[in-house]
Amino acid sequence: MQILDGKKAAQAIKDELKLDVAQLAVEGKKIPHLAAILVGNNGASETYVAAKVKSCEEVGFKSTLIRFEEDISEIKLLEKIEELNSDPDVDGILVQLPLPKHISDEQVINTVHPDKDVDGFHPESVGRMVQGLPAFVAATPYGIMLLLEHYKIDTKGKHAVVVGRSNIVGRPMSVLLSSNSPYGNCTVTICHSHTKNLKEICLQADIIVAALGRPEFVTEDMVKEGAVVIDVGITRVIDTSKKSGFKLKGDVDYENVAPKCSWITPVPGGVGPMTIGALMKNTYRACTLKN
Ligand code: NDP
Predict the structure, then answer these.
(1) Is the pLDDT of residue 126 over 80?
(2) For the residues 169-173, what does the mean pLDDT come to?
(3) Residues 93, 84: contact at Cβ < 8 Å?
(4) Most buried among 41, 42, 133, 169, by the most CB within 10 A?
């Protein structure tokens, strides 16, 4: 069994971007600028946004963190996004999800200008991705594709099973793995909460992407010998022995599944860092498309 080390692969992406940014500076060109919006005080969201801002600093991007209280009105938030849309200094806009219940995710996603949609959630970005056109691809599935590329995982003709069909992970993942591209060309089965015989389907998989948000859902008896297992899940479970009071659990029972795999991602240190690496790549792209 070998580890798909997302920390290492993401560092390689960031090292490369750092050089690219330095080159932009030498040429007197614009440096990428990411604007991140955080609403409320959700602990996990705070952590993710902080990590994104830190990565911007690491690669030499400019970043702006805009914070709003939980009770900000939808209209105020949309106005801020419009302001960022028309600010020529801002290349990428990221609105950290989940948002409070009184704000529509859909409205927010649709308001971000497609040219600044570094999260790849706008319908135009999704449509372009589905058609195989150059696009901002949602950071988590894009990060997973970059991880497969980094470790040169052979995907051609393989049966990939994606568990989860959300718009931000499972569904775009299924499209990318089935696309006619170097780390695509899989035969893909997409599963969800109404799937029957999930265990039997997973047992047929050469590649499993688990993205359901249920800790240790994928167990050893669901995985065939030699499979590649990508664990997207991140759930905080109470652990009083930790200073934070919690530990992170993936959707895969790592301890028992790992010995059966050819490759597997750890949690943490697998898909999480790659998501940030992919976001950095999208932001660089948003900037240089204009340069
Ligand atoms: P969602 O809750 O939006 O989607 C979960 C999906 O899993 C749904 O399609 C749901 O099916 C399916 N599902 C739920 N229970 C089952 C079940 N018992 N059997 C089969 N399918 C099931 O989650 P997200 O896609 O947003 O996130 C999934 C996980 O990935 C979470 O733990 C999240 O924290 C993590 N995540 C990690 C990221 C990273 O950077 N590492 C980034 C984004 C997410 P249905 O549609 O029928 O309800």
Answers:
(1) yes
(2) 98
(3) yes
(4) 169
Residue 157 and residue 106 share a domain: no
Are 157 and 235 found together in one domain?
yes
Q: Which of 85, 117, 149 is the last residue of a domain?
A: 117
Asked if residue 169 is part of any domain, the answer here is yes
- Asked, for residue 237, whether it belongs to a domain, the answer is yes
Structure tokens at 53: 């801002």
**Is 132 among the domain residues?**
no
Domain count, the chain: 2
Domain that holds residue 94: 28-117
CA 18 to ligand 1 centroid distance, Å: 32
Question: Residues 6 or more apart from 181 whose CB is under 8 A from it?
Answer: 132
**Residue entry with tokens 């009083």:** 240
Is 102 domain-assigned? yes
Collapsing DSSP to helix, strand or coil, 246 comes out as strand
Over residues 31-40, mean pLDDT: 98
Residue type, 136: F
Q: Whose CA is nearest to atom 42 of ligand 1?
A: 140
Q: What is the pLDDT of residues 50-67, one digit of tens each?
A: 999 999 999 999 999 999
In angstroms, rounded to a whole number, what is the distance separating the alpha carbons of residues 185 and 99?
A: 35
Which pLDDT belongs to residue 148? 98
Active site (annotated) includes residue 52: yes
- The mean pLDDT value for 85-111 works out to 98
Check pocket membership of 163 for ligand 1, CB cut-off 6 A: yes
- Looking at the predicted structure, is the pLDDT value of residue 290 above 90? no
170 CA: nearest ligand 1 atom:
25
The protein residue with its alpha carbon nearest to ligand 1, atom 35, reads: 233
